[in-house]
């Protein structure tokens, strides 16, 4: 795993648990990268025998650029969170979106097919989630973002994949959704996106992409609006790790025990 800062990462623990459970021998470490030397750091890791690498902020775009091959999800998102090394080939994929989709559907039990979804934010994580979401055939995905043009542009880019619309927060008044996802980074600063509280009424699930923060301002708003199920992004984190592990090792680890160990009660 390469990122900066990287001290907080849970990935070595997650992959260590997967390796133990599946009988795989791995040496998974956190590397604190630098923007100037990112490519050299990746090449040094490969030369030392590294077979695959997770990539986190702020290197997801650089990893995309460094890859010699990009799988569809990486290509469409313009970012990668996982690399695989095979001789001279550097293959890029992006498992964030599939991890989120798996968590919502398999772990939390909310089918996306036929759902009306609101996704707030239009940054890298939301971009990565759109293709896996739309593949499940929701009735509608509305993207709302503080910088409205980003949401509109993103919706246009994915319009061929399903029913997706971009807008600003003001246009949400009076709309109702089954699933509301906070894909902004507002919670990392303890902030609340300017989401009209009424937009959450009637929703069945409120999902916060940030994890380990307990009841964030967004989840608190959802709780007050009476949303019956609240979740944070710990399941997404573990599910994307499981997809990467499968890609690298050919075996899909069970995620339930790891998610349970990492879950912080949302109180
Ligand atoms: P980006 O920096 O790419 O995008 C940030 C987004 O948040 C932008 O749309 C920005 O709007 C919006 N935003 C930031 N602050 C506010 C605010 N105060 N009010 C309203 N909107 C705001 O971030 P990422 O997409 O990489 O990450 C988004 C979230 O997803 C983070 O919380 C991150 O921790 C989480 N994440 C979780 C993962 C997991 O495995 N659980 C994996 C990856 C990310 P604007 O365009 O107007 O600036």
Automatic annotation (TrEMBL):
CDD domains: NAD_bind_Shikimate_DH (cd01065). The keyword Isomerase does not apply. Pathway: Metabolic intermediate biosynthesis; chorismate biosynthesis; chorismate from D-erythrose 4-phosphate and phosphoenolpyruvate: step 4/7. SUPFAM superfamilies: Aminoacid dehydrogenase-like, N-terminal domain (SSF53223), NAD(P)-binding Rossmann-fold domains (SSF51735). Its EC number is 1.1.1.25. Residues 2-82 form the Shikimate dehydrogenase substrate binding N-terminal domain. Residues 111-187 form the Quinate/shikimate 5-dehydrogenase/glutamyl-tRNA reductase domain. Keywords: Amino-acid biosynthesis, Aromatic amino acid biosynthesis, NADP, Oxidoreductase. It catalyses: shikimate + NADP(+) = 3-dehydroshikimate + NADPH + H(+). GO terms for molecular function: shikimate 3-dehydrogenase (NADP+) activity. Residues 233-259 form the SDH C-terminal domain. Pfam families: SDH_C, Shikimate_DH, Shikimate_dh_N. This is shikimate dehydrogenase (NADP(+)).
């Amino acid at each position: 795993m390469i990122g900066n800062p990287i001290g907080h990462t849970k990935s070595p623990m997650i992959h260590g648990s997967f390796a133990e459970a599946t009988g795989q021998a791995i040496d998974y470490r956190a590397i604190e990268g630098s923007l100037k030397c990112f490519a050299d750091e990746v090449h040094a890791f490969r030369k030392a025998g590294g077979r695959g690498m997770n990539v986190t902020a702020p290197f997801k775009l650089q990893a995309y650029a460094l890859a010699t091959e990009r799988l569809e999800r990486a290509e469409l998102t313009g970012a990668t969170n996982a690399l695989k090394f095979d001789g001279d080939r550097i293959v890029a994929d992006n498992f964030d979106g599939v991890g989120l989709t798996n968590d919502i559907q398999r772990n939390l039990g909310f089918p996306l097919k036929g759902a009306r979804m609101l996704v707030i934010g239009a940054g890298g994580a939301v971009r990565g989630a759109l293709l896996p979401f739309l593949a499940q055939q929701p009735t509608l995905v509305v993207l709302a973002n503080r910088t409205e043009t980003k949401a509109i542009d993103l919706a246009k880019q994915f319009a061929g994949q399903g029913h997706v619309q971009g807008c600003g927060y003001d246009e949400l008044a009076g709309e109702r959704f089954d699933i509301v996802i906070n894909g902004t980074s507002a919670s990392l600063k303890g902030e609340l996106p300017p989401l009209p509280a009424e937009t959450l009424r009637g929703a069945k699930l409120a999902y916060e992409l940030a994890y380990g923060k307990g009841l964030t301002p967004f989840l608190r708003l959802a709780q007050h609006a009476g949303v019956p199920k609240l979740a944070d992004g710990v399941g997404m984190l573990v599910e994307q790790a499981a997809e990467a592990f499968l890609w690298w090792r050919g075996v899909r680890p069970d995620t339930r025990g790891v998610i349970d160990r990492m879950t912080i009660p949302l109180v």
